[in-house]
Each structure stands twice: as C-alpha cells, then as structure tokens.
Amino acid sequence: MLNPYLLSDALLSSWLLEDAPTGDLTGLLLGLPERHGVLHFTARDAMCVCGSEEALRMGQLRGLTCAGTMVASGRTLQPGAPILSLSGPANELMVVWKMAQTLMEYLSGIASETAELVAQAQQQQPGVVVSCTRKHFPGIKAAAIKAILCGGAIPHRLGLSDSLLLFAEHRQFVPQLSPAELVQHYRRHSPERKLVVEVVTSAEALAWAQAGVDVLQLEKFSPVQIAALRAELEPLSRSPVIVAAGGIQRSNVRAYAASGADVLVTSAPYQAPPRDVQVRFTPMP
C-alpha cells in the first residue's frame, strides 16, 4: 500500500520544535543562514520506505523545497536508491536533517518488517491477512499505523473505543452471563459491530462459536491447535472468523498462515530495528 496518509503539520512542527527550539546554534554562528544547499536522503539498507512525505513536509514547514526526488512511502528500495532531496537555506537544512532522517529510519524499519511478514504469510496462504496490534510505544499511533499500512498489514484495532473485543478480564465481572447471553447483549446494544471474543482453550472457542460469536481470537494457540479447532468448527452452519494472536513473528508466520487462521495478529513490526538512511549535503554556490 502506498502513502496512506500524511501526519499532521502540528505533530511535525512539534517534533522540529522539540529538537531545535531556537534553531541550529552551531550553524547560526557560522553564518549558515546566508548559505544554501541540498540535503539528500538515500537508502543505505534495502527497505520498504516510510515517512518520506513527512520528511518533505518538515522541509516545507521550514521553507525548503523538493529538489526533484521524492519516493512515496510503501515503495521497496534497494541500497543506494534515492529517497528525497531538499534544497534551501543551510541552517534550515540542519534543523530538518536529524528529525526527518530518524523518522524515516524508524518507520521504514516497521514498514519493512511488516512487508516481510505479509510476504511470507501470503506465500504460504494467499488469502491470509496480517494485522498489527496497538502495542506500539505510546504517542506514536498515527506514525506506527502509517508504517504497518505501508508494509501491507492492517490495524488490529486502533484503541478500546472503536471495536468490540471481549476479553476474559471483561467476562470475570459478569460470570452469571453465558456466552449466548453475552452475544445477544452486544447484538442488541451495538448491532452494527462484529463481536470478537478472545479465548485460550479449544473448549472455550467451541462454546463461543456455538453461541454465534462473529470472530474468535485464539490467544497463544499453536498452529497445530488452530488446525484442529478449524476442523472441529467445520460442521457449524455459521463458522466464526479465526484470528491467531500471540507470539507471531518471522520465524513462525508461515506455520500460522498454513494453520487455517483467517487473520494473523502480531506486534513484531514495532520491535523491528530501524533501516539506515544515509544523508549527504551538497553546498550551492
């Protein structure tokens, strides 16, 4: 998926202000506001690039212009490929430099790991969907979601307010209600939303499936357990969507894709190392 959206000017400006609240003192004392140049960002690693639009916009917010190169987020790049070039006053290039570079490195790391997981899963099972949790570092939701979208995954849920995911931690407060009663409760109070229930045993999964739940989230089931449960659910007239969650990463994603799960939920991309973005300055006469 290419360039799903652009982070807000307010957010980008706040990051620039955090790093350079009164500009670049070193450059100011050298007289760099009177000099001009071009700042080039290049992929040092192979990557699924992400954050190039934000890097460009950071430059524009500081009076810089695109110098002919801008590769959209979501593109796959080989080492040495150009990403973005910015031109303008040298002191403003210095202000934008590190924030733009760091943002692209971190987001490209998330996007690249996501793309690898999606590729491996869909090579094993073309119809399977990879979904990423909300277990990213607090405060970076918009950026993290952009990165996983660029890598070809979807958000599992954006937060507690946008979906119905019934955990055992919820259910312990209403032990008197059966699975069928809880399903009917949510269908009555929120009929337009699908109900997802997390389970940790096959017996729980069967009970909720028979109650008519829309989606079963299987927490830390092995691929073998998922395949066995899928077979048990086949006789049902209405089988729920099967979501595998917990510990899915590059080393086991193929096995989970082959298990019969419809969706693979993972947090692994958020722990991916950054992809290296090289920086080079060209002074202008």
TrEMBL record:
Domain Quinolinate phosphoribosyl transferase N-terminal as annotated: residue spans: 24-108
Domain Quinolinate phosphoribosyl transferase C-terminal: 110-279
This protein's UniProt keywords: Glycosyltransferase, Transferase
InterPro entries membership: Aldolase_TIM (IPR013785), ModD (IPR006242), NadC/ModD (IPR027277), Nicotinate_pribotase-like_C (IPR036068), Quinolinate_PRibosylTase_N_sf (IPR037128), Quinolinate_PRibosylTrfase_C (IPR002638), Quinolinate_PRibosylTrfase_N (IPR022412)
Superkingdom of this protein's organism: Bacteria
NCBIfam families registered for this protein in UniProt: modD
Family per similarity comment: Belongs to the NadC/ModD family.
Name of protein: Putative pyrophosphorylase ModD
Gene encoding the protein: modD
